[in-house]
Every structure is written in structure tokens, then in C-alpha cells.
Amino acid sequence: MKQFQPLVFSGVQPTGNLHLGNYLGAIRKFVALQDKNDCIYCVVDMHALTAQLVHEDLKEQTRSIAAAFIASGIDPKKHIVFNQSAVPGHAELAWIFNCVARIGWMNRMTQFKDKAGKDAEKASLGLYAYPSLMAADILLYRATHVPVGDDQKQHLELTRDIAQKFNLDFADHIRKSGEGVDIKVGDEPVHAYFPMVEALIDGPAPRVMSLRDGTKKMSKSDPSDLSRINLMDDADAISKKIKKAKTDPEGLPGETDGLAGRPEADNLVGIYAALADTSKADVLKEFGGQQFSAFKPALADLAVTVLAPIHAEMRRLMDATDHIDAILKDGGERARARADVTLKQVRDIVGFL
Ligand code: AQP
Fold first, then answer.
1. Ligand 1 atom showing the smallest separation from residue 206 Cα
2. Spatial strand order in the sheet of 80-83
3. Predicted structure pTM score
4. What kind and span of H or E run contains 147?
5. Atom of ligand 1 nearest to the CA of 18
6. Which of 306, 226, 313 minimizes the C-alpha distance to 272?
7. Which residue segments constitute the domains of the chain, with CATH numbers given?
8. Crossing angle of helices 263-276 and 292-318, rounded to 10°
9. Catalytic pick from 2, 122, 176, 217?
10. pLDDT digits (tens, 9 = 90+) for 57-75
11. Assuming Cys at both sites, which of 94, 95, 221, 352 could form a disulfide with 136, CB separation 3.0 to 4.6 Å?
12. Which protein residue's CA is at the shortest distance from atom 17 of ligand 1?
């Protein structure tokens, strides 16, 4: 019986300095998945235009994300690393998905509401349609698994909705094309062209929060640099930011229940657990009962140990522009070859002559 080939796909926007949230929520998972999976990792430069049209240096930012992927350990020979705009199929499939997706679905997207702010009328149409392009990014390769941070969960659900509607609306055409796969959605058998993607959002820090406010996501666009640890921060900056991180007056609890209602403490313990590749419960076994004055230096040391080699390699790669460009060009060609197969079949299914 025909099945979807397992394939991991994910992307990162070249919209500023990568931070610890991007690393723990996404890039580190990309690295872990590459041993046992076929993976495609994309610098989503077309998405970068959605919230801000003109960038100081989008090309340089694009290279820096590719450098971060490689410095973190992604093997661009074994897998594909490329920038989205190198494969025109992303835009073409996104158009078809714009016609599949319903306005009501888009209106529910919380990221649009957050990013558009109070004056949504002035937001770009691109920002509104962002999730449709994201669905196209993933489904252009008929990817089955998507490692992302928790903030992308809703967009992944929308990707499944788009795939499901496409599969049902074009069911007869898919059958005729001979390219469909029999799957089950819940208990329902469906003859699908696009798989139901699975979001990989696990680990102790699926949503890393701001160091200044434990209720806000750590984000590139936060005006306060003290709110995040950037991958390009040196050891001194990392230690300073962790030292200044907001906490509450209590010490660390012995068990995870004691983190409830303490967002800053929960965040720092989660970061430690993720960096040490352990659980929050194990971190609290070690540090429970101690004050933040003892925990913060240990966290800073750990963060520096993990991030310093990545930082150094990123710096080296950022000076080797030709090397990064060659990796992206090669990845773009390989991605395009795969995308063209899907596009040819989708055009046939949709009925384009
Ligand atoms: N705070 C976070 N915790 C865990 N994961 C996160 N990600 C982002 N922030 C966190 C994950 O990083 C991947 C790439 O994100 P992106 O750059 O494509 O978009 P984003 O989610 O919009 O990232 P930022 O940093 O918040 O940027 P701005 O400020 O520009 O909006 C995704 O997998 C995301 O889940």
C-alpha cells in the first residue's frame, strides 16, 4: 500500500537576531531529527516581507540564519538547507491554498492579531495570508513532520485544515491522478494527496518566555534586548542578561507543582532543563530550595557552554559568504527539483492546462 514518505520540514524567518527561543523551540530540534530523517530546512525570506517590507539587509540576515543552522550542526549535504524565494513553487502553491483556505479560518489566527496590533487595517495582505504560505512551504514537499515552537501550533492546525479541504474538494481528481494515498483522518478513510502534518512541539521549553516578563514570548521583535539571549551574544552579555532576568522573591521549589503561578521561575527552570537536555523535575531535584542568586550563575554557565561554540562557528561562517551562498544555491536546486514534482501533480489535480 502506498504511504507518505516521512519527511521533516521547518523554516525560520530572517527577521533579526536569532534568540534562545528560536534555538530551543526549533533549531535544536532540527539537529536532533536529522540523524534518522530526511529533512528540509528553509530560511523563509518571503515571510520576512509580511510584517516589514523593507529590510536593512535581508540578504545578510538570510545568510545568518543559514549560518546558524549549520553552526548548530545541520548537515547541508545530507539534508537540504535553502532560502524560500529560490523556489517559486512556494508562491504558486500558496495561491492555490489562498483559494482553499476560508477567510473565517484566517480571522482566527492569533499571530496575525498579535503582529497586526491595534490597527489591523494597516497590516499587509501578506501578513494576513502568512499561514497559507506557511502551509504551502510544508506541503510543497508533502512533508509529514514539522518541528516548531509552541507559538506555531495554530498555524500547523491550519495547515492540516487546508490539506484536508484540498483532499476532500479534489478527491475525484486525486483519484484520477493516481498520486493519492489512503489515510485515516480520525476514523474517516480519505484518499489524500497532502498528508496530515504532525507538529513536533515537545520538550521542557516549547515556548521560551521573555527574560523581562514571563508571560510574554521571547521574540526577535521585542524592543528590549534584555528580554532575550541572542545566539550572537558573547559570554558576558549572556551572564548579564540572566543576572538581570526578572524573578520573584521565593526560592526554587522542590517539585514542578511549585512553579504554578510563577511564570519567570518556570521559564528559567524550563530553559535550564532544555539546555541540559533533562526535565524540569530533574532540575528541581538539583536546585530545589536554593535561591535564584545560586541558580542564575549555574544557568548562565550552562547557556554559555551550549551557545559559545555555535556563536563562534556562526561568526566564522558569516565571514565565509561564498561558502554559505554555495550551500543555499545547492539546497535551492535540490529543493526545486522536489517541489517541481509536487507542482506538476497539483497543477494536474487542480485542472491547469
Ligand atoms: N520564544 C520562543 N520559544 C520557542 N520557540 C520559538 N520560536 C520563536 N520564538 C520562540 C520558534 O522559532 C521558529 C522560527 O520562528 P520565526 O523566526 O520563523 O518566527 P517567530 O515565531 O515570529 O519568531 P520571533 O522570534 O517571535 O520573531 P518575531 O519577533 O519577528 O515575531 C519557529 O518554529 C517558532 O515557533
1. 4
2. 80-83, 39-43, 8-12, 145-147, 198-200
3. 0.96
4. strand 145-147
5. 25
6. 306
7. 8-204+320-350 (3.40.50.620), 225-317 (1.10.240.10)
8. 50
9. 217
10. 999 999 999 999 999 999 9
11. 94
12. 13
